[in-house]
Amino acid sequence: MRLTSLVTILVFVAGLGIGYFARGAAGMLQRRKHAADLAAIEKLNQEDIQATVTQDPKLLMDEWDEDGVRFTPGSPPQVGKQAIAAGNEKFHAQYPGMKVLSYTSELKNLQVEDGLAWGWFEKKGEYKLSPESPPASWQAKGLFVLKRQSDGSWKGLMGFPVSEDELATGGNAKSR
């Protein structure tokens, strides 16, 4: 009986030890995955800055998921990558000489779970609608949702500005 009790206690302690180390290893893998997600999301943010500054149509679309939805004040939602591309084309046709002079983008309160990421953005920029126009400034704050792609990269699933300084002026940017 004593030998059986000793064996039972040893098996129990060994099981606890294995469970403890397995749980720790799983947690370490989860932390590594979270760090990789954060790095990939920051890469997407840097790609957004590059795409916005250059106004390259392909780069502007590369950051969106096929099911993306973009909300723009004063316009209906653009649902799907094709609708977002059409919105970009319409804007560029309206302002063919537009040049972005500066642009910053910060992501805040980022949360990542089950292949989705969400948080707040703060964006600021300065641009000229034509070579002759004076520089104008723009800033926006809003909500974003991203979707992890099968290759581990992230794409925009939703962008929803909740405040823009242009909103208060009826769509006219503040000129310097």
Descriptive overview:
- The protein is built from four helices and seven strands; from the N terminus they run ααββαββββαβ.
- The protein is an alpha+beta fold.
- It has one domain (2-175): Nuclear Transport Factor 2, Chain: A (Roll).
- Strands 1, 2, 3, 4, 5, 6 and 7 form a seven-stranded mixed sheet that branches.
- Residues 166-176 have low confidence and may be disordered.
The end-to-end distance, rounded to whole angstroms, is: 90 Å
List segments where confidence is low: pLDDT < 50 over at least 5 consecutive residues.
166-176
Q: For the record, what CATH class applies?
A: Alpha Beta
Structural class by helix and strand composition = alpha+beta
Shape: elongated
Features:
176 residues; alpha+beta; Nuclear Transport Factor 2, Chain: A; seven-stranded mixed sheet
State the gist of this model:
The protein is an alpha+beta fold.
Task: Furnish the topology, listing elements before pairings.
Blueprint: H1 2-54, H2 57-62, E1 64-70, E2 78-79, H3 81-94, E3 99-113, E4 116-128, E5 136-148, E6 154-164, H4 165-168, E7 174-175
